[in-house]
Structure formats: C-alpha cells, structure tokens
C-alpha cells in the first residue's frame, strides 16, 4: 500500500452527509465493519484500526433529500489489504442479505453497494502492481464480471469487521464538466492522468497508482452542485507532503482561478463542480 504513503497525494478521509445519524452508524458498523472513534450529537468519526479516521458522517440540522441529479460523490472506495479479506466480506454480505454489485477492473477486484442514503461505496483489493499493464503513461483498466467463486476459495469465513490495515483507496466524483475538472486536478493539484475511459470519465493519481481520484460526467453533465443540506459528499481530504508542494499548489490554483482558504493543518479549496477539498499534512 505504498501508494497511500508520502510523497504521494492521496485521500485520507471522506466526509458525507446523511439523513439519520443513528441509522447510518448502525449500517457502517454492522454492515461495513467500521469502528467508532467519536460520536457527537450530529457527527460521527469512523475508523478501521481504532486510531485513524477514514470516514466522517454528519447529519445536517435540516436535511434535504436530493430531488435531481447533482455533482458530488459517485463513491468512496475502501481498499482492503488482501484478497482473503475481500472473500470474507463477501461472505459477510451474503450472510447479512446485503445486495452488492461486483466488477473486475484488471488492476483490482471490487464490490459496490450503497448506504441507506444512497451514498456510493466501493470495497476492493488491488492485484499485484507487477500484474498491471501500462501503455506508456496509461494503465489498462476494464469493467468485467468478477469471479466471486475464485475469491471465495481464498476466504476463511473469519469476518470481524474491516481489517486494521484498510485505507481509503480512492474517491470517485461526479462532476459537471470533465474539461474543467481535469484542469483543476492536474494543473491545480498536480495529479497525473492515468486512464481516459471513453469521453466521460478519467482517472488520476500520483506515483503511478491506478487512481487516487476518479472523475465522471456519466449522470452529471451540466448538473448543479449538491446543496449544502442535501445528503451526499461534504468534503474529502488529501494528504500533503511538504511546504514546497503546498506553495506550488497554491500558486497553480491561483493561476486557474480556484479559491483557497487557510485551515488548521493546511488549506481548503473547491473544484469547479462544487466538491470541497481539504489538503492537510
């Protein structure tokens, strides 16, 4: 999991808005397998190892359901350490009667599901980096049926929640304009494009990972941004490496007209689709 270590820029935490905090807490503990770090009246912080915050769930004082397609979260993705872990969570989902989708992306094997507020979740394992196929600076990715039987053969049935080494593998965003999003994340934040998927999606990373961020307009071309009190994405956090990187990012963001707000431990900016990005050490 060196792709989720410095000097790479990678997602550390995702913050989502939900309509019922207690319902979501039960779901994320019982079904997904998180541990609770902290609970407040309208906010909970969740972890896999009991120390590191991976997911924050917030219930706005006035909750608004989404009435139309918007920009925001397509899914956040939890990266499990081993294929055995993926097998065990598949068994857990089946035993719990949880519906999930599944895909083989060549670089990874993934499960897809939605929380009670329809927030998208991916749970996946990576294939060995040595098995990935690169065509110059583009990594080969596909979407094909997942061989669940072969994965289950590696399981031991010992599901005890998310493994402690689980990380936030990536985030996938719905954006309104792919060209504007590309400029923001590549020119502004310094990510590299590693895959273009048709004309409506691209995948970006640092350190030649298959992707730390996905961007698409599949259902959101020209869509309005998510409302402040609507369920969905609130913020996501990227890890900063050093002060030189910060200075370069700020200069590049200024050059493309992005806003910058100083926060504890770093700064905040907003992409052209209204997605709030926190950058912290």
TrEMBL record:
<dbReference type="InterPro" id="IPR029068">
    <property type="entry name" value="Glyas_Bleomycin-R_OHBP_Dase"/>
</dbReference>
<protein>
    <submittedName>
        <fullName>Catechol 2,3-dioxygenase</fullName>
        <ecNumber>1.13.11.2</ecNumber>
    </submittedName>
</protein>
<keyword id="KW-0560">Oxidoreductase</keyword>
<dbReference type="InterPro" id="IPR004360">
    <property type="entry name" value="Glyas_Fos-R_dOase_dom"/>
</dbReference>
<dbReference type="InterPro" id="IPR037523">
    <property type="entry name" value="VOC_core"/>
</dbReference>
<keyword id="KW-0479">Metal-binding</keyword>
<dbReference type="Pfam" id="PF00903">
    <property type="entry name" value="Glyoxalase"/>
</dbReference>
<feature type="domain" description="VOC">
    <location>
        <begin position="167"/>
        <end position="281"/>
    </location>
</feature>
<feature type="domain" description="VOC">
    <location>
        <begin position="10"/>
        <end position="126"/>
    </location>
</feature>
<dbReference type="GO" id="GO:0018577">
    <property type="term" value="F:catechol 2,3-dioxygenase activity"/>
</dbReference>
<dbReference type="InterPro" id="IPR018146">
    <property type="entry name" value="Glyoxalase_1_CS"/>
</dbReference>
């Amino acid at each position: 999991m060196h792709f989720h270590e410095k000097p790479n820029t990678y997602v550390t935490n995702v913050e989502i808005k939900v309509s019922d905090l207690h319902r979501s807490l039960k779901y994320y503990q019982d079904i997904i397998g998180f541990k609770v770090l902290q609970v407040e009246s309208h906010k909970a912080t969740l972890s896999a190892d009991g120390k590191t915050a991976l997911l924050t769930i917030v219930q706005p004082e006035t909750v608004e359901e989404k009435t139309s397609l918007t920009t925001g979260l397509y899914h956040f993705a939890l990266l499990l350490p081993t294929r055995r872990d993926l097998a065990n969570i598949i068994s857990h989902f089946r035993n719990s009667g949880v519906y999930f989708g599944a895909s083989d992306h060549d670089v990874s094997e993934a499960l897809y599901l939605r929380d009670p507020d329809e927030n998208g979740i991916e749970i996946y394992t990576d294939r060995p980096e040595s098995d990935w196929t690169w065509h110059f600076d583009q990594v080969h990715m596909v979407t094909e049926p997942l061989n669940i039987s072969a994965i289950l053969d590696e399981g031991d049935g010992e599901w005890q929640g998310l493994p402690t080494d689980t990380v936030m593998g990536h985030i996938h965003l719905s954006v309104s304009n792919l060209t504007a999003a590309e400029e923001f994340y590549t020119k502004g934040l310094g990510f590299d494009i590693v895959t273009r998927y048709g004309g409506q999606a691209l995948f970006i990373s640092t350190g030649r990972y298959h992707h730390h961020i996905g961007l698409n307009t599949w259902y959101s071309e020209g869509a309005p941004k998510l409302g402040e009190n609507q369920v969905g994405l609130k913020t996501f956090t990227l890890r900063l490496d050093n002060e030189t990187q910060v200075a370069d990012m700020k200069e590049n963001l200024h050059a493309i007209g992005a806003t910058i707000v100083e926060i504890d431990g770093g700064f905040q900016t907003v992409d052209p689709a209204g997605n709030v990005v926190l950058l912290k050490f």
